[in-house]
Prior knowledge:
Chains A, B, C, D: One of its GO terms (molecular function) is DNA binding. Chains A, B, C, D: This is GntR family transcriptional regulator. Chains A, B, C, D: Keywords: DNA-binding, Transcription, Transcription regulation. The structure is a homotetramer. Chain A has helices spanning about 15-25, 40-45, 50-65, 85-105, 110-125; strands spanning about 35, 65-70, 75. Chain A is mainly α and about 140 residues long. Chain A has one domain: Orthogonal Bundle (Arc Repressor Mutant, subunit A). Chain A has a 3-stranded antiparallel sheet with strand order 1-3-2. In chain A, a hairpin with a 3-residue loop joins strand 2 (about 65-70) and strand 3 (about 75). In chain A, helix 1 crosses helix 3 and helix 2 packs across helix 3. The longest helix of chain A is centred in the C-terminal third of the chain and has 20 residues, at about 85-105. Chain A is globular, with a radius of gyration of 17 Å. The interface between C and D is large, with 41 and 41 residues. Chain B binds a DNA duplex (15 and 15 nucleotides) through helix 3.
Amino acid sequence: xxxxxxxxxxxxxxxxxxxxxxxxxxxxxxxxxxxxxxxxxxxxxxxxxxxxxxxxxxxxxxxxxxxxxxxxxxxxxxxxxxxxxxxxxxxxxxxxxxxxxxxxxxxxxxxxxxxxxxxxxxxxxxxxxxxxxxx
Amino acid sequence: xxxxxxxxxxxxxxxxxxxxxxxxxxxxxxxxxxxxxxxxxxxxxxxxxxxxxxxxxxxxxxxxxxxxxxxxxxxxxxxxxxxxxxxxxxxxxxxxxxxxxxxxxxxxxxxxxxxxxxxxxxxxxxxxxxxxxxx
Amino acid sequence: xxxxxxxxxxxxxxxxxxxxxxxxxxxxxxxxxxxxxxxxxxxxxxxxxxxxxxxxxxxxxxxxxxxxxxxxxxxxxxxxxxxxxxxxxxxxxxxxxxxxxxxxxxxxxxxxxxxxxxxxxxxxxxxxxxxxxxx
Amino acid sequence: xxxxxxxxxxxxxxxxxxxxxxxxxxxxxxxxxxxxxxxxxxxxxxxxxxxxxxxxxxxxxxxxxxxxxxxxxxxxxxxxxxxxxxxxxxxxxxxxxxxxxxxxxxxxxxxxxxxxxxxxxxxxxxxxxxxxxxx
DNA sequence: GTGGTCTAGACCACA
DNA sequence: GTGGTCTAGACCACA
Lengths: 135, 135, 135, 135
Protein backbone atom coordinates (compact mmCIF):
# COMPACT_ATOMS: atom_id res chain seq x y z
CA UNK A 1 0.00 0.00 0.00
CA UNK A 2 1.42 3.35 -1.03
CA UNK A 3 0.76 6.71 0.64
CA UNK A 4 2.04 9.20 -1.88
CA UNK A 5 0.34 12.50 -2.54
CA UNK A 6 1.00 14.27 -5.80
CA UNK A 7 0.10 17.85 -6.57
CA UNK A 8 -1.40 17.82 -10.03
CA UNK A 9 -1.41 21.61 -10.20
CA UNK A 10 2.18 22.02 -9.16
CA UNK A 11 4.53 23.60 -11.63
CA UNK A 12 6.90 20.72 -11.05
CA UNK A 13 6.18 17.77 -13.37
CA UNK A 14 4.40 14.80 -11.88
CA UNK A 15 7.17 12.36 -12.77
CA UNK A 16 9.66 14.52 -10.89
CA UNK A 17 7.37 14.71 -7.88
CA UNK A 18 6.99 10.95 -7.95
CA UNK A 19 10.73 10.42 -8.22
CA UNK A 20 11.25 12.73 -5.26
CA UNK A 21 8.60 11.05 -3.13
CA UNK A 22 10.25 7.69 -3.62
CA UNK A 23 13.62 9.14 -2.72
CA UNK A 24 12.08 10.67 0.40
CA UNK A 25 10.69 7.24 1.18
CA UNK A 26 14.17 5.79 0.99
CA UNK A 27 15.70 8.60 3.03
CA UNK A 28 13.14 8.05 5.78
CA UNK A 29 13.70 4.30 5.65
CA UNK A 30 10.09 3.65 4.80
CA UNK A 31 11.60 2.05 1.72
CA UNK A 32 14.70 -0.12 2.20
CA UNK A 33 17.11 -1.76 -0.22
CA UNK A 34 15.42 -4.82 -1.71
CA UNK A 35 11.90 -3.56 -1.03
CA UNK A 36 9.54 -4.03 -3.99
CA UNK A 37 7.80 -1.16 -5.73
CA UNK A 38 4.47 -1.54 -7.57
CA UNK A 39 4.53 -2.27 -11.27
CA UNK A 40 4.26 0.71 -13.60
CA UNK A 41 0.71 -0.24 -14.44
CA UNK A 42 -0.46 -0.80 -10.86
CA UNK A 43 1.24 2.31 -9.55
CA UNK A 44 -0.21 4.47 -12.31
CA UNK A 45 -3.68 3.21 -11.49
CA UNK A 46 -3.23 3.76 -7.74
CA UNK A 47 -1.98 7.29 -8.26
CA UNK A 48 -4.45 8.14 -10.96
CA UNK A 49 -1.77 9.18 -13.41
CA UNK A 50 -0.57 8.05 -16.80
CA UNK A 51 1.59 4.93 -17.13
CA UNK A 52 4.15 6.95 -19.05
CA UNK A 53 4.50 9.25 -16.04
CA UNK A 54 5.30 6.43 -13.63
CA UNK A 55 7.62 4.88 -16.18
CA UNK A 56 9.51 8.14 -16.59
CA UNK A 57 10.00 8.42 -12.84
CA UNK A 58 11.22 4.81 -12.65
CA UNK A 59 13.67 5.36 -15.50
CA UNK A 60 15.13 8.37 -13.72
CA UNK A 61 15.49 6.40 -10.48
CA UNK A 62 17.08 3.49 -12.31
CA UNK A 63 19.50 5.79 -14.11
CA UNK A 64 20.72 7.20 -10.82
CA UNK A 65 20.95 3.75 -9.22
CA UNK A 66 18.12 4.10 -6.70
CA UNK A 67 16.10 1.19 -8.07
CA UNK A 68 16.51 -1.89 -10.21
CA UNK A 69 14.00 -2.92 -12.83
CA UNK A 70 13.84 -6.68 -13.56
CA UNK A 71 11.63 -8.06 -16.25
CA UNK A 72 10.42 -10.81 -13.95
CA UNK A 73 11.00 -9.81 -10.34
CA UNK A 74 9.62 -6.38 -11.04
CA UNK A 75 10.87 -3.14 -9.51
CA UNK A 76 12.90 -3.07 -6.30
CA UNK A 77 14.85 -0.54 -4.30
CA UNK A 78 18.45 -1.21 -5.25
CA UNK A 79 19.54 -4.08 -2.94
CA UNK A 80 23.20 -3.34 -3.65
CA UNK A 81 22.89 -0.05 -1.86
CA UNK A 82 22.39 3.55 -2.87
CA UNK A 83 24.43 5.71 -5.23
CA UNK A 84 27.15 7.76 -3.59
CA UNK A 85 27.93 11.44 -3.39
CA UNK A 86 30.26 12.00 -6.32
CA UNK A 87 31.69 15.26 -7.54
CA UNK A 88 29.07 15.54 -10.21
CA UNK A 89 26.26 15.22 -7.71
CA UNK A 90 27.85 17.68 -5.31
CA UNK A 91 28.23 20.28 -8.03
CA UNK A 92 24.59 19.82 -8.90
CA UNK A 93 23.37 20.21 -5.33
CA UNK A 94 25.42 23.34 -4.89
CA UNK A 95 23.89 24.79 -8.00
CA UNK A 96 20.41 23.98 -6.69
CA UNK A 97 21.03 25.32 -3.21
CA UNK A 98 22.57 28.56 -4.33
CA UNK A 99 19.37 30.36 -5.36
CA UNK A 100 17.43 29.04 -2.35
CA UNK A 101 20.05 30.17 0.11
CA UNK A 102 20.51 33.47 -1.72
CA UNK A 103 16.85 34.28 -1.45
CA UNK A 104 16.79 33.37 2.23
CA UNK A 105 19.73 35.67 2.81
CA UNK A 106 18.00 38.49 0.92
CA UNK A 107 14.95 38.01 3.10
CA UNK A 108 17.06 38.47 6.18
CA UNK A 109 17.88 35.00 7.45
CA UNK A 110 21.31 34.71 9.01
CA UNK A 111 23.50 31.63 8.94
CA UNK A 112 22.19 30.30 12.25
CA UNK A 113 18.54 30.54 11.25
CA UNK A 114 19.36 28.89 7.96
CA UNK A 115 21.16 26.04 9.69
CA UNK A 116 18.25 25.57 12.05
CA UNK A 117 15.85 25.39 9.12
CA UNK A 118 17.96 22.80 7.34
CA UNK A 119 18.18 20.78 10.53
CA UNK A 120 14.42 20.88 10.99
CA UNK A 121 13.78 19.64 7.49
CA UNK A 122 16.41 16.99 7.99
CA UNK A 123 14.68 15.70 11.10
CA UNK A 124 11.28 15.99 9.48
CA UNK A 125 12.47 13.62 6.78
CA UNK A 126 13.76 11.13 9.30
CA UNK A 127 10.53 11.30 11.28
CA UNK A 128 8.70 10.20 8.16
CA UNK A 129 10.25 6.79 8.94
CA UNK A 130 8.14 6.34 12.04
CA UNK A 131 5.03 5.80 9.96
CA UNK A 132 4.16 2.40 8.57
CA UNK A 133 6.26 1.22 5.71
CA UNK A 134 5.26 2.50 2.28
CA UNK A 135 4.78 -0.93 0.72
CA UNK B 1 28.29 47.06 -15.96
CA UNK B 2 26.59 43.73 -15.46
CA UNK B 3 28.34 40.39 -15.27
CA UNK B 4 25.63 37.77 -15.50
CA UNK B 5 26.07 34.52 -17.31
CA UNK B 6 23.05 32.54 -18.43
CA UNK B 7 23.04 28.95 -19.53
CA UNK B 8 20.85 28.91 -22.63
CA UNK B 9 21.04 25.11 -22.72
CA UNK B 10 19.92 24.65 -19.12
CA UNK B 11 16.66 22.91 -18.36
CA UNK B 12 15.72 25.79 -16.11
CA UNK B 13 14.08 28.65 -18.02
CA UNK B 14 16.18 31.68 -18.82
CA UNK B 15 13.87 34.05 -16.98
CA UNK B 16 14.17 31.94 -13.82
CA UNK B 17 17.95 31.87 -14.13
CA UNK B 18 17.98 35.62 -14.55
CA UNK B 19 15.69 36.11 -11.56
CA UNK B 20 17.99 33.94 -9.47
CA UNK B 21 21.15 35.67 -10.62
CA UNK B 22 19.73 39.02 -9.58
CA UNK B 23 18.71 37.64 -6.20
CA UNK B 24 22.22 36.24 -5.78
CA UNK B 25 23.52 39.68 -6.67
CA UNK B 26 21.43 41.16 -3.87
CA UNK B 27 22.43 38.45 -1.39
CA UNK B 28 26.09 39.11 -2.11
CA UNK B 29 25.58 42.86 -1.85
CA UNK B 30 26.77 43.43 -5.37
CA UNK B 31 23.32 44.90 -5.81
CA UNK B 32 21.98 47.11 -3.01
CA UNK B 33 18.59 48.66 -2.32
CA UNK B 34 18.12 51.63 -4.62
CA UNK B 35 20.61 50.41 -7.21
CA UNK B 36 19.32 50.72 -10.77
CA UNK B 37 18.91 47.74 -13.09
CA UNK B 38 19.13 48.06 -16.86
CA UNK B 39 15.95 48.64 -18.85
CA UNK B 40 14.37 45.49 -20.22
CA UNK B 41 15.56 46.31 -23.70
CA UNK B 42 19.11 47.21 -22.78
CA UNK B 43 19.46 44.19 -20.53
CA UNK B 44 18.01 41.91 -23.18
CA UNK B 45 20.53 43.13 -25.69
CA UNK B 46 23.41 42.77 -23.23
CA UNK B 47 22.37 39.23 -22.36
CA UNK B 48 21.54 38.23 -25.90
CA UNK B 49 17.98 37.28 -25.07
CA UNK B 50 14.58 38.63 -25.88
CA UNK B 51 13.09 41.65 -24.19
CA UNK B 52 10.13 39.58 -23.00
CA UNK B 53 12.38 37.12 -21.24
CA UNK B 54 13.97 39.88 -19.21
CA UNK B 55 10.57 41.38 -18.57
CA UNK B 56 9.27 38.08 -17.21
CA UNK B 57 12.16 37.90 -14.76
CA UNK B 58 11.52 41.51 -13.71
CA UNK B 59 7.82 40.85 -13.19
CA UNK B 60 8.62 37.94 -10.89
CA UNK B 61 11.08 40.02 -8.90
CA UNK B 62 8.60 42.86 -8.66
CA UNK B 63 5.84 40.52 -7.49
CA UNK B 64 8.02 39.27 -4.66
CA UNK B 65 9.13 42.76 -3.70
CA UNK B 66 12.77 42.51 -4.71
CA UNK B 67 12.61 45.31 -7.24
CA UNK B 68 10.44 48.26 -8.09
CA UNK B 69 9.46 49.17 -11.62
CA UNK B 70 8.85 52.87 -12.11
CA UNK B 71 7.31 54.08 -15.27
CA UNK B 72 9.78 56.91 -15.21
CA UNK B 73 12.91 56.09 -13.28
CA UNK B 74 13.10 52.57 -14.65
CA UNK B 75 13.94 49.53 -12.56
CA UNK B 76 15.62 49.64 -9.15
CA UNK B 77 16.39 47.22 -6.34
CA UNK B 78 13.63 47.86 -3.82
CA UNK B 79 14.90 50.86 -1.84
CA UNK B 80 12.39 50.15 0.97
CA UNK B 81 14.23 46.93 1.76
CA UNK B 82 13.73 43.31 0.90
CA UNK B 83 10.70 41.07 1.46
CA UNK B 84 10.72 39.22 4.75
CA UNK B 85 10.66 35.55 5.67
CA UNK B 86 6.96 34.94 6.15
CA UNK B 87 5.20 31.65 6.82
CA UNK B 88 4.34 31.30 3.19
CA UNK B 89 7.94 31.61 2.11
CA UNK B 90 9.18 29.28 4.82
CA UNK B 91 6.72 26.58 3.79
CA UNK B 92 7.89 26.96 0.22
CA UNK B 93 11.55 26.68 1.07
CA UNK B 94 10.93 23.59 3.17
CA UNK B 95 9.11 22.02 0.26
CA UNK B 96 12.01 22.84 -2.03
CA UNK B 97 14.69 21.65 0.36
CA UNK B 98 13.02 18.37 1.22
CA UNK B 99 13.87 16.47 -1.99
CA UNK B 100 17.40 17.88 -2.12
CA UNK B 101 18.13 16.87 1.46
CA UNK B 102 16.40 13.52 1.01
CA UNK B 103 18.57 12.63 -1.91
CA UNK B 104 21.70 13.66 -0.07
CA UNK B 105 20.68 11.47 2.85
CA UNK B 106 20.04 8.54 0.51
CA UNK B 107 23.47 9.00 -0.95
CA UNK B 108 25.01 8.72 2.47
CA UNK B 109 25.59 12.24 3.67
CA UNK B 110 25.15 12.66 7.41
CA UNK B 111 23.87 15.78 9.11
CA UNK B 112 27.35 17.19 9.69
CA UNK B 113 28.42 16.86 6.07
CA UNK B 114 25.15 18.43 4.97
CA UNK B 115 25.63 21.36 7.30
CA UNK B 116 29.16 21.83 6.05
CA UNK B 117 27.92 21.90 2.46
CA UNK B 118 25.26 24.49 3.24
CA UNK B 119 27.82 26.60 5.04
CA UNK B 120 30.18 26.45 2.10
CA UNK B 121 27.51 27.57 -0.35
CA UNK B 122 26.50 30.28 2.09
CA UNK B 123 30.02 31.65 2.19
CA UNK B 124 30.44 31.27 -1.53
CA UNK B 125 27.47 33.56 -2.02
CA UNK B 126 28.89 36.17 0.32
CA UNK B 127 32.24 36.02 -1.42
CA UNK B 128 30.51 37.12 -4.59
CA UNK B 129 30.37 40.53 -2.88
CA UNK B 130 34.13 40.97 -3.03
CA UNK B 131 34.01 41.57 -6.77
CA UNK B 132 33.29 45.02 -8.14
CA UNK B 133 29.71 46.10 -7.91
CA UNK B 134 27.40 44.81 -10.64
CA UNK B 135 26.20 48.21 -11.77
CA UNK C 1 -20.07 27.47 -26.01
CA UNK C 2 -18.69 30.76 -24.81
CA UNK C 3 -20.36 34.14 -25.24
CA UNK C 4 -17.79 36.74 -24.35
CA UNK C 5 -17.51 40.05 -26.11
CA UNK C 6 -14.30 42.03 -25.94
CA UNK C 7 -13.85 45.65 -26.90
CA UNK C 8 -10.65 45.73 -28.91
CA UNK C 9 -10.78 49.54 -28.99
CA UNK C 10 -11.16 49.92 -25.24
CA UNK C 11 -8.47 51.61 -23.24
CA UNK C 12 -8.48 48.71 -20.83
CA UNK C 13 -6.19 45.87 -22.00
CA UNK C 14 -7.82 42.86 -23.61
CA UNK C 15 -6.40 40.45 -21.05
CA UNK C 16 -7.92 42.51 -18.24
CA UNK C 17 -11.28 42.59 -19.99
CA UNK C 18 -11.13 38.85 -20.45
CA UNK C 19 -10.19 38.30 -16.82
CA UNK C 20 -13.12 40.46 -15.75
CA UNK C 21 -15.58 38.74 -18.08
CA UNK C 22 -14.67 35.38 -16.62
CA UNK C 23 -15.06 36.71 -13.09
CA UNK C 24 -18.45 38.11 -14.06
CA UNK C 25 -19.31 34.68 -15.43
CA UNK C 26 -18.47 33.15 -12.07
CA UNK C 27 -20.37 35.83 -10.14
CA UNK C 28 -23.47 35.19 -12.24
CA UNK C 29 -23.09 31.44 -11.84
CA UNK C 30 -22.77 30.93 -15.57
CA UNK C 31 -19.44 29.44 -14.64
CA UNK C 32 -19.29 27.18 -11.59
CA UNK C 33 -16.43 25.60 -9.65
CA UNK C 34 -15.10 22.66 -11.64
CA UNK C 35 -16.38 23.95 -14.98
CA UNK C 36 -13.79 23.69 -17.74
CA UNK C 37 -12.52 26.69 -19.66
CA UNK C 38 -11.23 26.45 -23.23
CA UNK C 39 -7.52 25.91 -23.83
CA UNK C 40 -5.53 29.07 -24.42
CA UNK C 41 -5.28 28.30 -28.09
CA UNK C 42 -8.92 27.40 -28.64
CA UNK C 43 -10.11 30.39 -26.66
CA UNK C 44 -7.76 32.70 -28.50
CA UNK C 45 -9.11 31.53 -31.82
CA UNK C 46 -12.72 31.86 -30.66
CA UNK C 47 -12.11 35.39 -29.41
CA UNK C 48 -9.97 36.44 -32.32
CA UNK C 49 -7.02 37.37 -30.15
CA UNK C 50 -3.56 36.03 -29.60
CA UNK C 51 -2.83 32.98 -27.49
CA UNK C 52 -0.58 35.02 -25.22
CA UNK C 53 -3.34 37.46 -24.44
CA UNK C 54 -5.61 34.66 -23.24
CA UNK C 55 -2.71 33.15 -21.35
CA UNK C 56 -2.06 36.42 -19.55
CA UNK C 57 -5.69 36.55 -18.41
CA UNK C 58 -5.49 32.93 -17.26
CA UNK C 59 -2.29 33.55 -15.33
CA UNK C 60 -3.93 36.44 -13.48
CA UNK C 61 -6.97 34.34 -12.64
CA UNK C 62 -4.76 31.49 -11.48
CA UNK C 63 -2.70 33.79 -9.29
CA UNK C 64 -5.82 35.02 -7.53
CA UNK C 65 -7.19 31.50 -7.13
CA UNK C 66 -10.17 31.78 -9.48
CA UNK C 67 -9.01 29.03 -11.80
CA UNK C 68 -6.67 26.07 -11.77
CA UNK C 69 -4.38 25.24 -14.66
CA UNK C 70 -3.61 21.53 -14.92
CA UNK C 71 -0.91 20.39 -17.25
CA UNK C 72 -3.19 17.55 -18.21
CA UNK C 73 -6.86 18.37 -17.65
CA UNK C 74 -6.51 21.89 -18.93
CA UNK C 75 -8.13 24.89 -17.28
CA UNK C 76 -11.02 24.73 -14.80
CA UNK C 77 -12.84 27.11 -12.48
CA UNK C 78 -11.28 26.41 -9.09
CA UNK C 79 -13.21 23.39 -7.79
CA UNK C 80 -12.01 24.05 -4.23
CA UNK C 81 -14.01 27.25 -4.16
CA UNK C 82 -13.23 30.88 -4.72
CA UNK C 83 -10.68 33.11 -2.98
CA UNK C 84 -11.99 34.92 0.08
CA UNK C 85 -12.29 38.58 1.01
CA UNK C 86 -9.07 39.14 2.90
CA UNK C 87 -7.73 42.40 4.25
CA UNK C 88 -5.53 42.84 1.26
CA UNK C 89 -8.42 42.55 -1.14
CA UNK C 90 -10.61 44.85 0.90
CA UNK C 91 -7.94 47.53 0.96
CA UNK C 92 -7.64 47.23 -2.79
CA UNK C 93 -11.35 47.51 -3.43
CA UNK C 94 -11.59 50.55 -1.20
CA UNK C 95 -8.79 52.16 -3.13
CA UNK C 96 -10.57 51.41 -6.40
CA UNK C 97 -13.96 52.58 -5.21
CA UNK C 98 -12.75 55.81 -3.72
CA UNK C 99 -12.30 57.78 -6.96
CA UNK C 100 -15.50 56.39 -8.48
CA UNK C 101 -17.57 57.34 -5.46
CA UNK C 102 -15.81 60.67 -5.12
CA UNK C 103 -16.66 61.65 -8.65
CA UNK C 104 -20.26 60.60 -8.20
CA UNK C 105 -20.47 62.74 -5.07
CA UNK C 106 -18.97 65.69 -6.93
CA UNK C 107 -21.55 65.28 -9.63
CA UNK C 108 -24.31 65.52 -7.10
CA UNK C 109 -25.31 61.96 -6.27
CA UNK C 110 -26.34 61.48 -2.67
CA UNK C 111 -25.84 58.32 -0.66
CA UNK C 112 -29.27 56.92 -1.50
CA UNK C 113 -28.83 57.33 -5.26
CA UNK C 114 -25.41 55.77 -5.01
CA UNK C 115 -26.76 52.79 -3.09
CA UNK C 116 -29.51 52.35 -5.64
CA UNK C 117 -26.98 52.35 -8.45
CA UNK C 118 -24.82 49.74 -6.73
CA UNK C 119 -27.88 47.60 -6.10
CA UNK C 120 -28.90 47.81 -9.75
CA UNK C 121 -25.48 46.72 -10.97
CA UNK C 122 -25.49 43.97 -8.37
CA UNK C 123 -28.78 42.61 -9.67
CA UNK C 124 -27.70 43.07 -13.27
CA UNK C 125 -24.77 40.77 -12.57
CA UNK C 126 -26.97 38.13 -11.00
CA UNK C 127 -29.40 38.32 -13.93
CA UNK C 128 -26.57 37.26 -16.19
CA UNK C 129 -27.07 33.83 -14.61
CA UNK C 130 -30.48 33.40 -16.18
CA UNK C 131 -28.96 32.84 -19.58
CA UNK C 132 -27.76 29.43 -20.65
CA UNK C 133 -24.52 28.30 -19.10
CA UNK C 134 -21.35 29.65 -20.69
CA UNK C 135 -19.78 26.28 -21.33
CA UNK D 1 -0.40 74.10 0.61
CA UNK D 2 -1.25 70.78 -0.95
CA UNK D 3 -1.25 67.40 0.78
CA UNK D 4 -1.45 64.95 -2.09
CA UNK D 5 0.37 61.68 -2.09
CA UNK D 6 1.04 59.97 -5.40
CA UNK D 7 2.17 56.39 -5.81
CA UNK D 8 4.90 56.50 -8.43
CA UNK D 9 4.98 52.70 -8.63
CA UNK D 10 1.28 52.28 -9.10
CA UNK D 11 0.08 50.76 -12.33
CA UNK D 12 -2.32 53.65 -12.67
CA UNK D 13 -0.77 56.62 -14.46
CA UNK D 14 0.28 59.57 -12.33
CA UNK D 15 -1.90 62.03 -14.19
CA UNK D 16 -4.96 59.84 -13.48
CA UNK D 17 -4.01 59.60 -9.82
CA UNK D 18 -3.64 63.37 -9.66
CA UNK D 19 -6.97 63.92 -11.36
CA UNK D 20 -8.61 61.57 -8.88
CA UNK D 21 -6.99 63.16 -5.85
CA UNK D 22 -8.32 66.55 -6.89
CA UNK D 23 -11.79 65.11 -7.40
CA UNK D 24 -11.58 63.52 -3.96
CA UNK D 25 -10.60 66.94 -2.63
CA UNK D 26 -13.75 68.41 -4.15
CA UNK D 27 -15.96 65.56 -2.92
CA UNK D 28 -14.67 66.06 0.62
CA UNK D 29 -15.13 69.81 0.34
CA UNK D 30 -11.49 70.45 0.97
CA UNK D 31 -11.68 72.11 -2.39
CA UNK D 32 -14.72 74.29 -3.12
CA UNK D 33 -15.97 76.01 -6.28
CA UNK D 34 -13.85 79.06 -6.92
CA UNK D 35 -10.86 77.77 -4.93
CA UNK D 36 -7.57 78.27 -6.73
CA UNK D 37 -5.25 75.42 -7.70
CA UNK D 38 -1.49 75.81 -8.08
CA UNK D 39 -0.09 76.62 -11.50
CA UNK D 40 1.07 73.68 -13.59
CA UNK D 41 4.68 74.61 -12.96
CA UNK D 42 4.35 75.11 -9.20
CA UNK D 43 2.27 72.00 -8.72
CA UNK D 44 4.70 69.89 -10.72
CA UNK D 45 7.57 71.09 -8.59
CA UNK D 46 5.67 70.50 -5.33
CA UNK D 47 4.71 66.98 -6.36
CA UNK D 48 8.05 66.15 -7.91
CA UNK D 49 6.54 65.18 -11.24
CA UNK D 50 6.78 66.38 -14.79
CA UNK D 51 4.90 69.50 -15.88
CA UNK D 52 3.29 67.54 -18.67
CA UNK D 53 1.81 65.21 -16.08
CA UNK D 54 0.11 67.97 -14.15
CA UNK D 55 -1.02 69.57 -17.35
CA UNK D 56 -2.59 66.35 -18.55
CA UNK D 57 -4.51 65.98 -15.29
CA UNK D 58 -5.71 69.59 -15.52
CA UNK D 59 -6.84 69.11 -19.13
CA UNK D 60 -8.89 66.09 -18.10
CA UNK D 61 -10.49 67.99 -15.23
CA UNK D 62 -11.23 70.94 -17.48
CA UNK D 63 -12.74 68.69 -20.14
CA UNK D 64 -15.15 67.24 -17.62
CA UNK D 65 -15.98 70.66 -16.17
CA UNK D 66 -14.38 70.25 -12.75
CA UNK D 67 -11.98 73.16 -13.16
CA UNK D 68 -11.52 76.27 -15.23
CA UNK D 69 -8.21 77.35 -16.65
CA UNK D 70 -7.75 81.10 -17.18
CA UNK D 71 -4.69 82.53 -18.78
CA UNK D 72 -4.44 85.22 -16.12
CA UNK D 73 -6.41 84.19 -13.05
CA UNK D 74 -4.87 80.73 -13.21
CA UNK D 75 -6.62 77.48 -12.36
CA UNK D 76 -9.75 77.38 -10.19
CA UNK D 77 -12.32 74.83 -9.15
CA UNK D 78 -15.25 75.54 -11.44
CA UNK D 79 -17.15 78.36 -9.70
CA UNK D 80 -20.25 77.67 -11.79
CA UNK D 81 -20.69 74.31 -10.07
CA UNK D 82 -19.80 70.74 -10.88
CA UNK D 83 -20.75 68.63 -13.90
CA UNK D 84 -23.91 66.59 -13.49
CA UNK D 85 -24.70 62.90 -13.67
CA UNK D 86 -25.69 62.40 -17.28
CA UNK D 87 -26.51 59.13 -19.04
CA UNK D 88 -23.05 58.92 -20.46
CA UNK D 89 -21.45 59.19 -17.05
CA UNK D 90 -23.86 56.70 -15.51
CA UNK D 91 -23.13 54.13 -18.20
CA UNK D 92 -19.45 54.60 -17.56
CA UNK D 93 -19.72 54.16 -13.83
CA UNK D 94 -21.79 51.02 -14.26
CA UNK D 95 -19.14 49.60 -16.55
CA UNK D 96 -16.46 50.38 -13.98
CA UNK D 97 -18.40 49.01 -11.04
CA UNK D 98 -19.37 45.76 -12.72
CA UNK D 99 -16.01 43.97 -12.43
CA UNK D 100 -15.40 45.24 -8.91
CA UNK D 101 -18.80 44.06 -7.69
CA UNK D 102 -18.48 40.79 -9.60
CA UNK D 103 -15.20 39.98 -7.93
CA UNK D 104 -16.59 40.83 -4.52
CA UNK D 105 -19.54 38.53 -5.17
CA UNK D 106 -17.18 35.73 -6.28
CA UNK D 107 -15.23 36.16 -3.08
CA UNK D 108 -18.37 35.65 -1.06
CA UNK D 109 -19.64 39.12 -0.18
CA UNK D 110 -23.39 39.40 -0.08
CA UNK D 111 -25.40 42.48 -0.94
CA UNK D 112 -25.50 43.75 2.64
CA UNK D 113 -21.74 43.51 3.15
CA UNK D 114 -21.21 45.22 -0.18
CA UNK D 115 -23.55 48.04 0.76
CA UNK D 116 -21.80 48.45 4.09
CA UNK D 117 -18.44 48.68 2.34
CA UNK D 118 -19.69 51.31 -0.07
CA UNK D 119 -21.16 53.28 2.80
CA UNK D 120 -17.88 53.15 4.69
CA UNK D 121 -15.91 54.44 1.73
CA UNK D 122 -18.54 57.11 1.23
CA UNK D 123 -18.15 58.33 4.77
CA UNK D 124 -14.38 58.05 4.61
CA UNK D 125 -14.42 60.47 1.69
CA UNK D 126 -16.59 62.94 3.58
CA UNK D 127 -14.38 62.71 6.64
CA UNK D 128 -11.48 63.87 4.48
CA UNK D 129 -13.21 67.26 4.66
CA UNK D 130 -12.50 67.66 8.34
CA UNK D 131 -8.83 68.24 7.66
CA UNK D 132 -7.47 71.66 6.77
CA UNK D 133 -8.29 72.89 3.33
CA UNK D 134 -6.07 71.64 0.52
CA UNK D 135 -4.99 75.06 -0.71
C1' DG E 1 13.47 56.54 -23.90
C1' DT E 2 10.74 53.47 -20.89
C1' DG E 3 7.61 49.85 -19.78
C1' DG E 4 3.00 47.78 -21.33
C1' DT E 5 0.54 45.42 -24.64
C1' DC E 6 -0.25 42.62 -28.53
C1' DT E 7 0.77 39.66 -32.47
C1' DA E 8 2.52 35.62 -35.23
C1' DG E 9 5.00 31.91 -35.07
C1' DA E 10 8.09 28.31 -33.25
C1' DC E 11 9.87 24.44 -30.33
C1' DC E 12 9.49 21.62 -26.32
C1' DA E 13 8.12 19.08 -22.10
C1' DC E 14 4.34 16.83 -20.32
C1' DA E 15 0.66 13.61 -20.16
C1' DG F 1 -3.20 18.05 -27.66
C1' DT F 2 -1.92 21.06 -23.74
C1' DG F 3 0.53 24.66 -21.45
C1' DG F 4 5.36 26.73 -21.05
C1' DT F 5 8.91 29.17 -23.09
C1' DC F 6 11.15 32.04 -26.31
C1' DT F 7 11.77 35.06 -30.28
C1' DA F 8 11.21 39.14 -33.44
C1' DG F 9 8.87 42.86 -34.18
C1' DA F 10 5.27 46.45 -33.66
C1' DC F 11 2.49 50.26 -31.60
C1' DC F 12 1.26 53.03 -27.72
C1' DA F 13 0.87 55.50 -23.26
C1' DC F 14 3.66 57.68 -20.12
C1' DA F 15 7.01 60.87 -18.47
